[in-house]
Specification:
Order of helices and strands of chain A: HEHEEHEHHEEHHHHEHEEEEEEEHEE
Oligomer: heterodimer
CATH superfamily of the largest domain in chain A: Alkaline Phosphatase, subunit A
Helix content of chain B: 40-55%
Largest interface: A-B, 117 and 129 residues
Radius of gyration of chain A: 23 Å
Number of strands of chain B: 6
Shape of chain B: flat
Strand order of the largest sheet of chain A: 6-5-7-1-8-11-4-12
Largest sheet of chain B: 2 strands, antiparallel
Radius of gyration of chain B: 29 Å
Structural class of chain B: mainly alpha
Distance between the termini of chain B: 26 Å
Helix content of chain A: 25-40%
Strand content of chain B: under 5%
């Protein structure tokens, strides 16, 4: 505890915003600004108290990019199998604005076998046998809905709550509202599998109108995960230490001349932090000391799941190091298509596409849940399986499925959620959500709630407007919470 | 901020929902309900020239603005700060006007200039340089959410946007009156049809983030109009009109009807992205490169065409069918039945349809057995087509790497506009009443005078005339406040893009109105506005700390000391280029791609320029890829190109430190700067340190700095020697150093590190 408070004191002095001394004058006012804070040093990443006790400390946001067909993973529809090959009965299409590539296809059932698992008896297809073992840890949302028919627009909405770019991502809001719990690492990290950075890139982990300090930091594969983390090729480590000592002394002279300018002091300290991050970040992603059994748990011993498994093992290590928000984007796979590397976007040959993708993520996701549980971290972590939308019950190109924003499945696992339950449902063919629907805004409100944040009170003043993460929508889905 | 903070407190305290709390919030001065214009926010009321106040310390007043500032300082029992010394002043002014540090020669000339008009000469020299336009343009481009790509998933290049960027630079350099500047950006195509140099100004409107893949063209039309309306509202009028899109404005007298009436001015606005550009060097070079590519790929393209051509009609139909239901209504309508709305949708379709889209039909009839046109023999054609496409890709490196032979302009497709409706909750699928173009009723009684031409509705010209009119209460106030904000780190209205009730109150309303009225009276002369500020006593003050001022005015609202400020992202990079002697000082032209860290992983989104000259251009010329912000600038709070960026934040983070400390390019600049100081300092340690300080800080080092640095030269030698002892001898030596005397590599490497540390120091990153 003693170290803890020394640490906190240090944290409180580490960063500066705008050369101002009042929390009230942080850009946007600072949500937790109180008169008591006046005149103390402002650290935009200082840990802040939540609105109410948090259920979890970290979030792992598993974005399945390209939109998996949850109809072929979790949402078992015997009626769809029965009607496969027939036209969609018109009653199912009411209220739906379809796009057609050669007309709404006939209802399509892929070649799946289905089984119930666990005490909850949740259905899983043969594509996800390992995740199925965790049936009783999962809280399904089977009435997920969203807006949009194009990936990037709906991905933007999934991450930022708007169809147009410019709003802060959920992770940025979390970082803004809660600060960092480990200043040696970024508080908000983006991990991705595949050969390249996710398409449309930083806009999905952007801080929008929040200060840039709250944006996600993409971790790249390899030993040095952050851009410019390693010292220049021609500079040795000891050499840099010596340089930094000189810098500290130079800057200290400056700072002494401008005692009012806390920004200068913050800048002085930011170099010490940078130096520590040079050591802490590579260590955080270095899997060398992980035992083989753990590596195998995440599927690192199988080429099909090695890449994604590596990102999830890194994610666990980041959770252990108190990183608040870890956004994991699944990438493209060569094995998912005949022509080019592809994400989950199976407009054609769903069998091949989902076969490859499920194989890539099934074991790692299951491994993550096992590993978090055995380390006692699952209770303080929220794992979210999410995608920009789902896929249609009717087929496309004969053996694929089109985009479906009207009804699809997502799930939560971890602290404070009703494990082993299912909320909501789609219609009998799995096309449209029925009853109470869960939009991205509701999901955001619920995730924030688990972090101890009331989405209505998480406010940032921007251009005269009180902005919140859920724009003007959203409600916590109480039914999901324990 | 106090007001908004109070609101926030209230919400937190009472646990109210934000929306509820905000809706019930009463403005502090109690002017809640009255509709009369006298009850509107201060800045919405008509402009009047205020009387210049009388002050005690009259000899401090160089210009009327000094009197306005001094009156407030005196009213608070304070006195203004002493003058900054000349070296500090010229570094400050050069950074503010050019975004660059001055050369030691420029500093010396000014410091030693005994003539009575030394300051005037300096300021006039700064304002006459094209570097002024580059700096001012960057600030305007922040507001224009400028980018060289569309954003969204594929984020393709917009090959013509640099022409708009150059238009902005040139406009500032020509000192184009502000009224004309904004008119051209809103309606250049209507004001000067056929005139490329004016039409490109509408790039201000055309910069909206876009998604060419969208299957919902009706939604796209609405999103584009929304982006344009909100951008104009914030950038030019300083009002958050966007708030009224979904509901009547919570604080301001903006109804949803006002909002959509404003959007109606853009209902017929459409993008023309392939207008042939007048031929200059860039276009000739582009065409030459393009011709090489065309020649090299002639056969492949002909073969592809031969496969696609026989099925083109079916492929087009197939492609059109992929759009959503309501888009398809317009798309499949016979051309002679098109409404203005249908015309817009079809023009959009034409803009975004490519042969690649059409080839998808071929794939379907080759692979999808459910497609009635499916034939097994199509498989071979599709395979061949794919093979040819792969072949073609190999020639991508022959494509012109930059530039274009076209220009982009917003235009209209005819004199009649599609209708505009109020949308319930901002949802375009729930139209309510139709509205006509109109100005916000709270701001003016004026009605738009709309004169359609044969090809255009004339709506935007009408809007431009109103926004650029001297009677518009906001336009001049908003702009002079932005300029003030650039110099003093805080606007007179701190919320520079919100002059409504939700925003901050002006700290000195008389000063704001004086600046605005004199700006209009000068014929909207922007350089005069800058000159006035640069030559004022307010701007000449020292930034040295003053205890009593700090105690009385902790937020420095009175400006009784000059506010020190961290350099902007671009200022840091560009000044390092100046210091290292590497800056390629060329104005305008296509955007460039300097090197980026190898693990950025951006693939073909960032193909480093072939020409090394491109590496060292000013930051304003660096390509703005919406999905891949330039990593050297991004950590330093560069503008976010997704929406209007009103004000640069200043945050301090370890990622900034890592960038300046570890980035290979920055380290190379330090090597070059080390070479320069050896060259110019004559291989004498003390003289080299002096020179370094002159270059970076426009001053000599203090005694304690000097002794610290000389000490480092000695002690660091041991560290370098130890490193060199590993046998690899990989140490960084100065670049660009030519001397008859051979250089001791160890000492040289020590000097590089010294330079690199000083580059990283606070003194460099700030202007005082």
């Amino acid at each position: 505890m003693g170290t803890q408070s020394r640490r906190e004191m240090l944290f409180n002095a580490l960063y500066g915003v705008g050369g101002m001394t009042l929390a009230a004058q942080m850009p946007g006012g600072g949500i937790f600004a109180t008169p008591a804070l006046a005149d103390t040093f402002v650290d935009p990443l200082a840990p802040k108290a939540p609105h109410f006790p948090a259920k979890v400390k970290s979030v792992i946001w598993l974005h399945m990019q390209g939109a998996p067909s949850t109809l072929d993973l979790y949402d078992h529809k015997p009626e769809l199998i029965r009607l496969a090959g027939q036209e969609v009965p018109p009653s199912f299409l009411s209220g739906v604005k379809t796009s057609t590539q050669g007309g709404v296809g006939k209802l399509f059932a892929s070649n799946r076998t289905w089984k119930q698992y666990g005490e909850s008896g949740a259905w899983f297809s043969d594509l996800v046998p390992n995740i199925a073992q965790h049936a009783d840890k999962l809280t399904f949302i089977k009435s997920s809905t969203t807006i949009g028919a194009t990936h990037d627009i709906s991905i933007l909405k999934l991450n930022t709550g708007d169809l147009r770019p410019g709003r802060p991502s959920l992770g940025a809001w979390v970082t803004y509202a809660l600060g960092s719990a480990n200043h040696d690492l970024p508080a908000y990290v983006v991990l991705y599998s595949g050969k390249r950075e996710p398409r449309s890139g930083s806009v999905n982990w952007n801080s929008g109108f929040l200060p840039a300090v709250y944006q996600g930091v993409p971790f790249r594969s390899g030993a040095s995960p952050i851009l410019n983390l390693s010292h220049p090729e021609l500079m040795g480590l000891q050499e840099q230490r010596d340089d930094l000592d000189l810098l500290r002394r130079l800057n200290a002279q400056d700072a002494a001349e401008h005692p009012e300018n806390t920004e200068l002091q913050a800048r002085l300290r930011s170099y010490e932090l940078a130096y520590r991050m040079e050591g802490a970040a590579p260590e955080a992603v270095d899997l060398a000391k992980e035992p083989d059994a753990i590596k195998s748990l995440y599927g690192l011993d199988d080429p099909a799941s090695k890449d994604y498994g590596t990102t999830l093992l890194r994610a666990r290590r980041l959770v252990e190091r108190n990183v608040r928000f870890i956004q994991v984007v699944s990438g493209e796979l060569e094995a998912a298509s005949n022509s080019e590397a592809r994400d989950w976007d199976a407009h054609e040959d769903l069998e091949k596409n989902h076969g490859a993708h499920a194989k890539a993520v099934d074991k790692p996701v299951a491994g993550l849940l096992t590993d978090l549980k055995q380390r006692g971290l699952l209770d303080t972590t929220l794992v979210v399986w999410t995608s920009e939308f789902g896929r249609t019950s009717y087929g496309q190109s004969g053996n694929g499925r089109d985009h479906n924003p009207w009804g699809y499945t997502q799930w939560l696992a971890g602290g404070g959620v009703k494990a082993g339950t299912t909320f909501g449902e789609t219609d009998e063919i799995g096309l449209q959500a029925q009853g109470k629907k869960v939009d991205t805004y509701d999901l955001h409100a619920t995730v924030l709630q688990q972090l101890g944040l009331d989405h209505l009170r998480t406010i940032y003043m921007h251009d005269g407007r009180a902005e919140r993460p859920t724009v003007v929508y959203g409600a916590v889905v109480e039914e999901l919470l324990a | 901020m106090k007001k908004s903070l109070k609101r926030t407190f209230l919400c937190v305290l009472l646990g109210l929902s934000t929306a509820g709390a905000l809706a019930e919030d009463k403005p502090l001065d109690g002017d809640a309900k009255a509709p009369s214009r006298s009850r509107l926010p201060y800045a919405w009321q008509p402009l009047q020239r205020p009387a210049v106040p009388s002050v005690k310390q009259a000899d401090w007043v160089r210009a009327p603005i000094d009197a306005f500032v001094l009156a407030k300082i005196e009213a608070n029992g304070l006195t203004p700060a002493p003058e900054a010394d000349r070296a500090t002043f010229i570094r400050r002014a050069t950074l503010d006007v050019w975004g660059l540090i001055p050369s030691p020669e420029e500093v010396a000339a000014f410091v030693n200039d005994a003539s009575p008009d030394a300051y005037e000469k300096l300021v006039d020299r700064l304002l006459a340089s094209p570097r002024y336009g580059e700096r001012q343009a960057r600030r305007w481009l922040d507001l224009a959410r400028y980018a060289d790509s569309t954003g969204f998933q594929n984020d393709p290049t917009r090959p013509n946007m640099w022409r708009y960027r150059d238009y902005v630079i040139n406009s500032f350099n020509e000192d184009k009156p502000y009224a004309q500047f904004i008119k051209e950006q809103l309606a250049g195509d209507e004001i000067a049809p056929g005139n490329q140099s004016i039409m490109v100004a509408t790039g201000f409107l055309a910069g909206y983030p876009d998604n060419y893949n969208s299957r919902d063209l009706v939604d796209r039309k609405y999103q584009i109009a929304t982006d344009i309306t909100d951008t104009v509202g914030q950038a030019m009028l300083g009002t958050t009109v966007g708030c009224a899109r979904c509901h009547d404005h919570k604080f301001d007298k903006f109804s949803q009807k006002d909002y959509f009436s404003l959007q109606a001015f853009f209902a017929n606005t459409s993008e023309a992205m392939k207008l042939p550009a007048a031929e200059g060097d860039v276009e000739r070079e582009y065409k030459k490169e393009q011709a090489k590519y065309q020649e090299a790929t002639k056969d492949i393209r002909a073969q592809r065409k031969a496969i696609l051509e026989p099925i083109r009609a079916e492929a087009e139909k197939y492609h059109k069918e992929r759009y959503l239901t309501d888009s398809r209504e317009s798309i499949f309508k016979a051309k002679d039945e098109w409404t203005p709305f249908d015309r817009w949708i079809n023009h959009r379709l034409e803009n975004v349809t490519t042969d690649n889209d059409l080839s998808q039909y071929l794939r379907d009839i080759a692979e999808n057995k459910e497609n009635p046109a499916y034939k097994p023999e199509n498989e071979a054609k599709w395979a061949e087509y794919k093979k040819l496409s792969e072949e073609l890709k190999k020639f991508d490196r022959l494509k012109p790497a930059k530039g274009s032979d076209t220009f982009t302009s917003m235009t209209e497709l005819g004199p009649e506009s599609p209708p505009t409706y109020v949308f319930f909750g901002g949802n375009h699928e729930k139209p309510l009443d139709e509205v006509q173009p109109a100005f916000p009723v709270a701001l003016t009684d004026e009605k738009p005078v709309i004169a359609p031409s044969a090809t255009s509705s004339g709506r935007r010209t009408a809007l431009a005339n109103w926004i650029a009119s001297p009677s518009n209460p906001l336009t001049a106030r908003v702009y002079v406040n932005r300029v003030w904000n650039e110099y003093f780190d805080k606007g007179i209205v701190a919320t520079v893009s919100d002059f409504g009730k939700g925003g901050e109150r002006p700290t000195n309303p008389e000063l704001l109105d004086y600046l605005a009225t004199s700006f209009i009276d000068s014929g909207w002369d922007i350089k005069k506005l800058h000159r006035q500020i640069l030559l004022s006593s307010v701007y000449r003050q020292s930034s040295a700390h003053r205890d009593n001022v700090r105690a009385a005015d902790p937020d420095n609202k009175l400006l009784a000391v000059f506010p020190a400020k961290r350099l902007d992202a671009e200022e840091i990079r560009d000044s390092l280029l100046v210091a290292s002697g590497k800056l390629v000082d060329k104005v305008g032209g296509p955007s460039v791609f300097p090197p980026v860290p190898s693990n950025l992983n951006a693939g073909n989104m960032w193909q480093v320029s072939k020409d090394p000259q491109d590496f060292n251009r000013r930051s304003i010329y660096v390509f703005t890829r919406r999905s891949v912000p330039y990593p050297l600038l991004e950590p330093f709070d560069m503008a976010n190109a997704q929406q209007v960026h009103s004000k640069r934040d200043v945050t301090t983070t370890p990622l900034q430190a890592l960038t300046l400390l570890n980035n290979d390019v920055v380290y190379e600049w330090s090597q070059a700067l080390a070479g320069r100081i050896i060259r110019e300092g004559g291989n004498d340690p003390s003289a080299e340190i002096d020179r370094l300080y002159e270059i970076l800080f426009a001053r000599a080092p203090t005694d304690s700095e000097k002794s610290l640095l000389l000490g480092f030269l000695v002690s660091h030698e041991r560290v370098i020697k130890e490193k060199a002892a590993d046998g690899k001898f990989a140490i960084a030596v100065p670049i660009g150093f030519k001397s008859s005397e051979p250089l001791d590599p160890i000492r040289a490497a020590v000097l590089v590190d010294l330079v690199h540390v000083v580059v990283n120091s606070n003194d460099f990153a700030y202007r005082f």
